[in-house]
């Protein structure tokens, strides 16, 4: 998978949770650490990146990005304008580099403005399971983007999980709702089950074990089966049994509607961010 990227140097601007997940996933897949650089303002972040993954680190964004082929924009959305403008000013231009943004809610046209008209920009929406090579990333490139650039970004993100291209930029916000933010939904659900298992008398460790092994088993069943989610659910739900009562309780609480509302709230927030940042 890395043939075409063998000589590509990647610099991550920002070394937070998401950059860490992608870098960890790349290293796990055998991407050479010496080709990866990370910039971050704090010593601690840079030290952790160097210690954990053996990548190059820089305090100065432009120094880190100067000889990169691909610059991954991995700072918080609200910092992107300042960070990008400073970056191109310090590099003396956009350098015709390929920029891959992972930021939620910052439209490509705004990125292009912040990056002084850079012609090669791809947007992506990854998620943190990338760290384990189990990421799910949405990618968007504008009409006219070079196929070579698209394939490079695809190859990078495929190295840490699965990818899907969206035709319209708005699709990136739908990927946020269904995948980028979604690990947190599952964690929340697990937190709730663990909490009640503890209320029922299990110690925290046992409660966690009950939840995590069940979540892992369920996710693995979904992955290995061609059956629909609802069929798999039906297989657990004996007529007149315990699961039926639990599911009825979820339905009474309109769980599906609540999930839909939460996903729409994530999209709305991304739309709002697009106006702000
Ligand atoms: N956390 C997640 O699950 C996901 C995050 N994203 C996107 O990834 C981006 C980063 O998010 P997180 O990693 O969660 O945030 P984070 O807060 O963990 O990381 C941001 C990083 O940027 C660094 N930073 C701050 N100012 C900087 C500067 N001037 N120059 C260079 N680096 C600077 C910080 O030190 C920090 O390491 C955001 O745009 C977010 O929308 C996208 C998908 C999923
Ligand atoms: O919460 C956020 O805004 C980012 C984007 C998707 C996951 N984390």
Automatic annotation (TrEMBL):
<dbReference type="InterPro" id="IPR028939">
    <property type="entry name" value="P5C_Rdtase_cat_N"/>
</dbReference>
<dbReference type="InterPro" id="IPR053790">
    <property type="entry name" value="P5CR-like_CS"/>
</dbReference>
<keyword id="KW-0963">Cytoplasm</keyword>
<comment type="similarity">
    <text>Belongs to the pyrroline-5-carboxylate reductase family.</text>
</comment>
<dbReference type="Pfam" id="PF03807">
    <property type="entry name" value="F420_oxidored"/>
</dbReference>
<comment type="function">
    <text>Catalyzes the reduction of 1-pyrroline-5-carboxylate (PCA) to L-proline.</text>
</comment>
<protein>
    <recommendedName>
        <fullName>Pyrroline-5-carboxylate reductase</fullName>
        <ecNumber>1.5.1.2</ecNumber>
    </recommendedName>
</protein>
<feature type="domain" description="Pyrroline-5-carboxylate reductase catalytic N-terminal">
    <location>
        <begin position="9"/>
        <end position="105"/>
    </location>
</feature>
<comment type="pathway">
    <text>Amino-acid biosynthesis; L-proline biosynthesis; L-proline from L-glutamate 5-semialdehyde: step 1/1.</text>
</comment>
<dbReference type="GO" id="GO:0004735">
    <property type="term" value="F:pyrroline-5-carboxylate reductase activity"/>
</dbReference>
<keyword id="KW-0521">NADP</keyword>
<dbReference type="InterPro" id="IPR000304">
    <property type="entry name" value="Pyrroline-COOH_reductase"/>
</dbReference>
<feature type="domain" description="Pyrroline-5-carboxylate reductase dimerisation">
    <location>
        <begin position="169"/>
        <end position="273"/>
    </location>
</feature>
<keyword id="KW-0028">Amino-acid biosynthesis</keyword>
<dbReference type="InterPro" id="IPR008927">
    <property type="entry name" value="6-PGluconate_DH-like_C_sf"/>
</dbReference>
<dbReference type="Pfam" id="PF14748">
    <property type="entry name" value="P5CR_dimer"/>
</dbReference>
<dbReference type="InterPro" id="IPR029036">
    <property type="entry name" value="P5CR_dimer"/>
</dbReference>
<dbReference type="InterPro" id="IPR036291">
    <property type="entry name" value="NAD(P)-bd_dom_sf"/>
</dbReference>
<keyword id="KW-0641">Proline biosynthesis</keyword>
<keyword id="KW-0560">Oxidoreductase</keyword>
